[in-house]
Design a protein that fits this description.
This protein has 439 residues and is of the alpha/beta class. The chain is 36% helix and 24% strand. The protein folds into two domains: 119 residues, Urease, subunit C, domain 1 (Roll), CATH 2.30.40.10; 289 residues, Alpha-Beta Barrel (TIM Barrel), CATH 3.20.20. The chain contains 15 helices and 18 strands. Bound molecules: zinc ion. The site of zinc ion has 6 residues, from loops.
């Protein structure tokens, strides 16, 4: 008699969008999970025999797809949400954010702010985020407590940060974090350089070398505003992309956030080096920075992922809203409704993020052997009817509240809109106390 296989969690009856290379679907389909991995995925009618299922979710009539991959965030800036709106990036940073961070940001506020953002992200179907900020050990703590997956990166720049006195300390702290979380199932570490205009060539070079030595990703804000282009041209006589390339920073492990102002030569350099781009449409629109030419980048073979940026420059954490805004922004800029398809938008928000951070062996699509990170969506809502194409519904009509349950690393972190590991009211109460809210 064949051996009985132990299945920890089974999802049955769902319309599964795998987002694999061929965009395969199973309807109705089943996913079997053992530990944190998918051990079987396929049609309901082909379920393997001799399996003993411990826990089962009947997802009949629901849609199952990978969690959204938030490619760039400063999650705990939810603590500063609402400060200094309606300003350009340089005014917003210099007059509001950096002075506020000096007095308000400490390990407690980073913990609370990150927890608040993680609540918002899980509730809208995001299961992983890449974070660049301070006290990143607290961000890791939030991931461990909430069950959220995170890529953590202590921000490196030339002046003292709220957590480290020098860029050398931030680089050392990145090394320490890497050592601490090297085999962690939820946490990865990235080298996070703030920007070419806040970090000296010496430290950009060192940061790139560190990423290479530790074999981890490196990420940076790049070519975000016209002001940055002028500053870098004045300092070094070249574009920010060329500047980073000359410092040896661009490679397949590099993730460039924003990339709004790129020359054809810059685009060629990003492509040649295998650098990925994370586009952040709402942040760019709110700060009046411009628009990343996403369709053009994709056509030239550059991997483009999607993120929310921090909650103080957006001001929300829903990847779904980013997808829907990106779809519209792209058309406004190009006068071309064909520049990105609904399917491409979903890939940008899932597998392309995993590819950018070189985690696509495990994450970003639903395939046998990959980690079990997915969301269960309830399409029994007026804006889903009639249902001709699920990708179109997600890209143009779905709402965050339609996300019913979220599974990360094989574990249920939200079931029927209830967060399993987080006491939301406690977080709201503590935030209210700490932030001195006006209402
Ligand atoms: Zn950012």
């Amino acid at each position: 008699m064949p051996e009985i296989q132990k299945i920890d969690l089974a999802i049955t009856g769902a319309h599964i969008l795998t987002i694999d290379e061929g965009m395969k679907e199973y309807n109705p389909g089943t996913i079997y999970i053992t530990g944190n991995r998918i051990v079987w995925i396929g049609n309901d009618t082909e379920q393997p025999e001799n399996c003993k299922v411990h826990e089962k979710i009947d997802a009949t009539g629901k849609i199952v797809m990978p969690v959204f991959f938030n490619g760039h965030n400063h999650a705990s800036m939810s603590f500063l949400r609402g400060l200094g709106n309606d300003l350009s990036l340089d005014k917003w940073l210099n007059d509001f954010i950096w002075p506020a961070e000096k007095v308000m940001i400490n390990p407690d506020t980073v913990y609370l702010g990150t927890m608040l953002s993680v609540i918002e992200m899980i509730r809208s179907g995001t299961g992983i985020f890449s974070d660049m900020y301070f006290f990143e050990d607290q961000v890791a703590r939030v991931c461990e407590e909430s069950g959220m997956r995170g890529i953590i990166g202590e921000a490196i720049f030339d002046f003292p940060s709220p957590s480290r006195a020098t860029p050398a300390e931030s680089i050392q702290f990145t090394r320490d974090l890497h050592k601490q979380f090297i085999n962690h199932s939820l946490i990865n570490v990235s080298v996070s350089v703030h920007a070419p205009y806040t970090c000296s060539p010496n430290f950009i070079r060192q940061a790139g070398e560190l990423a290479e030595e530790l074999d981890i990703s490196a990420n940076i804000h790049l070519a975000e505003t016209n002001n940055e282009i002028e500053t870098i041209a004045g300092l070094y006589g070249k574009s920010p992309v060329q500047h980073l390339h000359d410092l040896g920073f661009l490679s397949e492990r590099t993730v460039a956030h924003h990339s709004v102002y790129l020359t054809p030569d810059d685009r060629q350099l990003l492509k040649e080096t295998g650098t990925s781009v994370v586009t952040l449409p709402n942040s760019n629109m709110k700060l009046g920075s411009g628009a990343c030419a996403v369709g053009e980048l994709l056509k030239s073979g550059i991997n483009v992922a999607l993120g929310t940026d921090g909650p103080a420059s957006n001001n929300h954490q829903s990847m779904l809203r980013e997808i829907q805004q990106l779809a519209r922004l792209e058309r406004v800029v190009n006068f071309d409704p064909t520049s990105i398809s609904a399917r491409e938008l979903i890939r940008i928000a899932t597998i392309n993020g995993a590819r950018a951070y070189r985690l696509d062996k495990d994450l970003g699509s639903l395939e046998c052997g990959k980690k079990a990170d997915f969301q269960i969506i309830n399409p029994d809502q007026p804006h889903w009817y009639p249902r001709y194409d699920p990708y179109n519904s997600i890209a143009y009509a779905m709402q965050s509240n339609d996300v019913e349950s979220v599974i990360i690393d094989g574990k249920i972190v939200m079931l029927n809109r209830i967060l399993v590991n987080i006491d939301e009211m406690r977080i709201f109460r503590e935030l209210k106390k700490k932030a001195g809210m006006l209402f």
